Write a sequence for this structure.
């Protein structure tokens, strides 16, 4: 079974890939000091939503599968849930300015 379920913070800007896909990196806290950083590939309507709304620092939950043979590790997302509230997003935007 190839199943990945991750919660983390967007570590890079969301980049378009082709006409209907997007890619970003996700920082996931592990047992060590430094977070693990994984690439996330998303397509379709969820890719459009990610391009429109996700920014670095936003928290998301990602469900999908690990792409076989991808180096560095890449998760092909089947579902992305935004976890950052609007108030948190405003605070992040103010801190970045």
């Amino acid at each position: 079974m190839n199943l990945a379920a991750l919660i983390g913070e967007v570590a890079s800007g969301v980049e378009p890939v082709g006409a209907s896909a997007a890619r970003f990196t996700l920082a996931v806290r592990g047992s060590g000091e430094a977070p693990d950083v994984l690439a996330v590939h998303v397509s379709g309507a969820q890719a459009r939503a990610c391009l429109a709304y996700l920014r670095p620092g936003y928290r998301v939950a990602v469900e999908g599968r690990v792409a076989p043979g991808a180096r560095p590790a890449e998760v092909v997302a089947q579902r992305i849930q935004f976890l950052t509230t609007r108030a948190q997003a405003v605070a992040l935007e103010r801190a970045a300015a």
User: Anything to note?
Assistant: The domain at 4-96 is CATH 2.40.50.140 (OB fold (Dihydrolipoamide Acetyltransferase, E2P)). The chain has one domain: 4-96. The longest strand covers residues 74-82.
